[in-house]
Amino acid sequence: LPGVSFTMQTFAVLLSLGVLGGKWGSVSILLYLLLGLVGLPVFSGFQGGAAVLLGPTGGFLWGFLLGALIYRAGEKLGRVPAMVLCQLACYGCGILWFARWAGVDPMTAALTAVVPYFIPDAIKLWLAYLVSGRIRKYRRGGS
Questions:
Q1: List of the chain residues with pLDDT < 70
Q2: Residue 31 buriedness (CB in 10 A; 0-12 / 13-18 / 19+)
């Protein structure tokens, strides 16, 4: 879609939260955003800089950090509910930002920038849950 591309960023965000937990996962996402802000090409399409964070999909990037903080607050509910809350926060920030940037109403922004990605995002969330569970198990010394 114009201005919105398929990426594995949400998988990486959810995976880092699932493995590191809310506190250190949030720190890692903040560092990711700071690296991109100073110009390192860590964002979609090997882009970096403030322009990306202020562009049409910048709200999704900021939503990663808000989602991570919400994940941390919701960790006691379990990893799956916390991951779903994180994803919803990303959607909310992304929709509002995209709507303002594109000059459209939030419903149009949601239909353009979020709805087409529901199924891929659900798959990424499920995979992040599974992979993070395996990594956590091995980090604890399990087999």
A1: 1-3, 141-143
A2: exposed
Task: Please list the residues that pair with 43 across neighbouring strands.
Answer: 47
pLDDT in tens, 73-84: 999 999 999 999
Classify residue 22 by burial, with Cβ atoms within 10 Å: 0-12, 13-18, 19+: buried
Rounded CA-CA distance 139/21 in Å is 13
CA dihedral of residues 10, 37, 60, 106 (deg, nearest 10): -170
Which has the closest alpha carbon to 13: 27, 37, 24, 29?
29
43 φ/ψ angles, rounded to the nearest 5 degrees: -90, 175
Look at residues 18, 14, 20 and name the one whose alpha carbon lies nearest to residue 88: 14
| Residue whose pair of structure tokens reads 């809350």 in the numeric block | 85
Contacts of 14 (CB under 8 A, 6+ apart): 83, 86, 87, 124, 125, 128, 129, 132
